[in-house]
Amino acid sequence: MKTKYFPIISIVLAFYFITPDSALVAGDGGSYTPYKIDDVNVAKNGQRFGYLQTSAISYSFQWTFVLTVNRNLGRDILNSNFKKWMKNISQMPEMWDGDHWVTNFIGHPLLGASVFAFYRNRGFSNQASMAGAFLQSTLFEYTVEGWKQPPSGIDLIVTPVLGSLIGSQVGMNSFLLSSSYALTKYIFRLF
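Request: output the structure for the sequence above.
Response:
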C-alpha cells in the first residue's frame, strides 16, 4: 500500500478500536469485565461475542477501508482478475513489498494493535487476540492485497507481532488509568 496518509489513518483507526466497549455501557463504572459462560463470552450488557463473528466484523472493516479510504488499492483490486490473484497467492511471500519503513514499522503495527484491541475489548484472552491479529493480517495479505501483489512477509510478521505487543501495552495502560479514577481525574486536570 503506497499512500502518504496511511500512518495517519492507521493512528485514527487504532484509537477508534482501542476505545473500550465499557465507554458505551452506562453505569458499569468504566471497567469491562467479560464473563465466561458455556465457552461464550458475555459482556455485562448481555451482548454475546463469538470469535467467528468478531473475525467477520474485523475482516469487513478491512474491505471497507480498502474500498473507501485507500482508493488506489481498491481500484487495483477492481481492475484485477482471478488468474492474477491465484498467481499472486500461489507464490511464497516476498520479504519486502516496497512499502516505506514508516508504513511497515509504524502504520502496520498500529493497525495490528487496533485488531488486537478489537478482540480484547470483546472479551477474548491475549492469546486469542494475538491469534486474531495473525488471522486478520493473513486474510488481508492473501485475500485483499493478493489481488494486486504477492503477500508480504514483513507485513505477515510485523503487523500481528508488534501490533499485539503495542495493543497489550495500551490495554494495560487503559486498565491502570480506568481502575484509578482519582489518578485519571488528576492526569486530565493537568491538561
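The chain has one domain: 10-190.
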